[in-house]
Amino acid sequence: MYPGLPEPPPPGTAMLPPGAFAGVTVFITGGGTGLGRAMAAEFARCGAAVAIASRDAGHRERGVAEVRSAGGAAIGVPCDVRDPAAIRAAFDAAEEALGPVTVLVNNAAANFPIAAADLSPNGWRAVTDIVLDGTFLCSQELHRRCTTRQSPGAILNILATQALTGGPGMSHAAAAKAAVGNLTKSLAVEWAPDGIRVNALAPGLFPHEDMREDLKALRPSPDTDATRQPALRTGRRHELGWAATYLCSPYAAFLTGHTLVIDGGNHLRRDFVMPPHTPIREQLPPRG
Ligand code: NAP
Q1: Residue 106: what pLDDT?
Q2: 61 φ, ψ to 5°?
Q3: What are phi and psi of 269, to 5 degrees?
Q4: Is 271 exposed, middle or buried (0-12, 13-18, 19+ CB in 10 A)?
Q5: Which atom of ligand 1 is nearest to the CA of 129?
Q6: 79 touches 53 (CB < 8 A)
Q7: Cβ of 210 below 6 Å from ligand 1
Q8: What is the pTM of this model?
Q9: Which of 169, 176, 209, 256 is buried most, with the most CB atoms less than 10 Å from its CB?
Q10: Ligand 1 pocket: which of 55, 125, 138, 183 to mutate (most atoms <8 Å of CB)?
Q11: Which residues pair with 26 in a beta bridge?
């Protein structure tokens, strides 16, 4: 019996000193669901005010409720990250309610499993527009505001380990995330003189209740998630929250252009003898 990697301290445990983000406003795209909401809660626990930016009012409400229950001030701001005018309006609304935004988490994403040969131009653009263009446009907005005010800032881009390995069956999302990883490095160098740090976080599998049905369906059963990882467990959402807050905190003041992978080593996995290969098309449900 192997123990696997140990569990982290429980949710709610402080990782940074209390008030590490006091007086800071954090803008999180897609902060109303899943991992975005978990990161929002952790920023709030550290004293931040949080703007939850996304398209769906119900999602935003859930994000705001979670931040408030973690002790932070929050506002939901309607935002489609593909639209520069909507991003500007969302930052304006966030700043009017909570004060100047100096931390941005580019977490919003879209993804759906499909064989590359079957992917339509619209399907390709739907994902790359949100993941790559959305990240760039929001980052530019934060940079514009911070440089106008001559204030330091921090940007965190949420990738996926597919950005490092490729993602058969998810070629659109993997390519877009890899491009964001590259963008992270360019912006880190361009914007360091302006006092703005740009880092990335690449999560492995972090199951949560908002996970889309088509993504859930790719897993044979949630019960076997743990045994399919070298760590013998999946990621806990608050672990991601700790990583996100650290990378945006003053304790990471000299850290920029970095991608932190948090996946229990899963993307490095390689067996001596690989299992027989099942073509991606056969792993996906039949197309209707
Ligand atoms: P999720 O629950 O599906 O969250 C995606 C979020 O993006 C939603 O809140 C959605 O909000 C928002 N969004 C989508 N399109 C948008 C747009 N055009 N404008 C503004 N917001 C938009 O996914 P998740 O699992 O929490 O993933 C969060 C991040 O972690 C993503 O970047 C994902 O790629 C990454 N990740 C997750 C895992 C995992 O195991 N869960 C693993 C690796 C990487 P609205 O619908 O309200 O707009």
Answers
A1: 99
A2: -60, -40
A3: -65, 135
A4: exposed
A5: 18
A6: yes
A7: yes
A8: 0.97
A9: 176
A10: 55
A11: 50, 103
Q: Is any atom of ligand 1 closer than 6 Å to the C-beta of 80?
A: yes
The model's pLDDT over 261-272, given as tens digits with 9 standing for 90+, comes to: 999 999 999 989
pLDDT at 77 over 90: yes
Q: What is the pLDDT of residues 189-248, one digit of tens each?
A: 999 999 999 999 999 999 988 888 888 888 878 888 899 999 999 999 999 999 999 999
Looking at the DSSP bridge assignments, the partners of residue 262 are 203
Residue 46's nearest CA partner among 206, 183, 243, 223 is: 243
Cβ 55 under 6 angstroms from ligand 1: yes
Report all structural domains of the chain as residue ranges with CATH numbers, in order of start.
Answer: 25-263 (3.40.50.720)
Q: Check residue 99 and give left, alpha or beta (phi > 0: left; psi -120 to 50: alpha).
A: left
Q: What is the mean pLDDT of residues 18-27?
A: 97
